[in-house]
Amino acid sequence: xxxxxxxxxxxxxxxxxxxxxxxxxxxxxxxxxAMLGFGGIEGEDHGGLTRPSCSRVLSQxxxxxxxxxxxxxxxxxxxxxxATAATMGLAEIAPEWLGASLMIEGIADFTQVPPSSRLxxxxxxxxxxxxxxxxCIWPAKEVELEHEGFGKAYKPAAAGRRGVxxxxxxxxxxxxxxxxxxxIPDQPVWPHLAAARGS
Length: 199
Prior knowledge:
Blueprint: E1 4-18, E2 29-31, E3 33-37, E4 40-41, E5 50-52, E6 66-68, E7 73-77, H1 78-88, E8 102-105, E9 118-120, E10 126-132, H2 137-146, H3 154-158, E11 164-170, E12 172-175, E13 179-185, H4 193-197
Parallel strand pairs: 7-8
Antiparallel strand pairs: 1-2, 1-8, 1-13, 3-4, 3-12, 5-6, 7-11, 9-10, 9-13, 10-11
């Protein structure tokens, strides 16, 4: 019995982005297609097999410790970004403001897909979902540049809708219009999850 189960859930790639230098700006440049290597999108600033640890993992590692890079790509859904914009009272939030690697359409409640799920492209390129990508100040700064006074509203509006981070399990080409198939781990939810979270 396979440990990963293909599902009927599919999403279409609507946007691909490339961030040159996060220290300068999170803003992404649009691409028609991208070659995924084991380190992510080739030449993209989120890429690499390892990364220095950040505030997200301070409970596990001292800041700056070299760790495996499971944040090679930021994957968001068209539906959730539209819902975030509506909550903020904006007509739209452009994917480039969010530093998105991929914007996909077609999977409801995408941010809540199980960790270790796979998204597989027609080329065979396969992404592994790490976990929810929590909203942070960097996209908020880009929103503020475009809509003065709205930046501070981004983090609360994007809670639960910021998409996921992912890493490349199998290299290959990914292009706008590709259909990605969602594969999920074939296992039950851990029964002690609520206790572990302290709720």
